[in-house]
Amino acid sequence: MKTIAFIGLGNMGGPMAANLLKAGYTVQVFDLVPEALQTLQDQGASAASSPEQAVAGADVVISMLPAGKHVAGLYLGNGGQPGLLESVAPGTLILDCSTIDGETVQQVAGACAEIGLDMLDAPVSGGVAAAQAGTLTFMCGGSADAFLRAEPILSAMGKRIFHAGNHGAGQVAKMCNNMLLAIHMIGTSEALKMGANCGLDPKILSEIMLNSSGRNWSLELYNPFPGVMDSPASRGYAPGFMVDLMAKDLGLAVDNAKTTGSRIPLGELAAALYQEKQAVGDGRKDFSSILELFEPA
Length: 297
Ligand code: NAD
Fold this sequence. Notes:
Bound molecules: nicotinamide-adenine-dinucleotide
């Protein structure tokens, strides 16, 4: 069985690393937060005191970090610190599962290619519940050979593993998906709030729309109205998937639209609404808390 180094044990990375342990892999973990390391150590992982220690003897490196600057800093180095690529063994497979910008993907993939390493951008969809259940969707960018090597490992953490195309293609797929997610989360919130303002029970309204043409993922599995189901909304909007991360993803979509000349009027509006939510100090709340913007004036 392979040895996997896993860097970034947050809301997503923690349960993903736990599923690799359950599948029988040896997992060497690193995070900046000691509590996150301890949680994985309790489940059987070896806790490393640095990323370099985590990759010692590893066949595969998986990273699950907040944004492009963290991924570039890890693999390529920053502030005079050497990057992790200087410490990995020849033949190591590099899998970055973070949601990041295409430019960083190309930089890391290029640096990997220079030293003969296979690398995939492999962002995920499904949220914390799917990370825990091992049912994530992976969208991969990179060579067909690298994809074949990665597939069995990703299958321990996800149910559907897609090869979207070359380096960066996984991130484009993820960006499109999350823009759509933000739009239907906002739409679902508006509809539920307006119905409640008219005196409807949000549980009954949700049931009606789930059996009508308004049905969507946010309504079905991640209802933003408190008390309708066991979702972050019913737990005081504890994340889950933070407003800050959704705002980052929408920023990536807006930047991409500028570069490619794509028209995304709803994506731009969604980005502005998530920025408004950040501006009131709610960046660390779950992204379904966007419903709170729709209180009647
Ligand atoms: P998070 O903030 O909960 O976790 C990130 C972790 O990375 C933290 O534990 C942090 O300490 C660690 N970290 C940061 N810099 C580090 C470094 N240099 N070395 C080691 N550890 C470092 O974020 P998350 O919700 O787990 O999201 C991770 C990525 O997955 C993001 O790119 C996000 O957009 C994406 N994503 C999240 C969800 C979700 O529902 N939360 C769903 C799909 C994709």
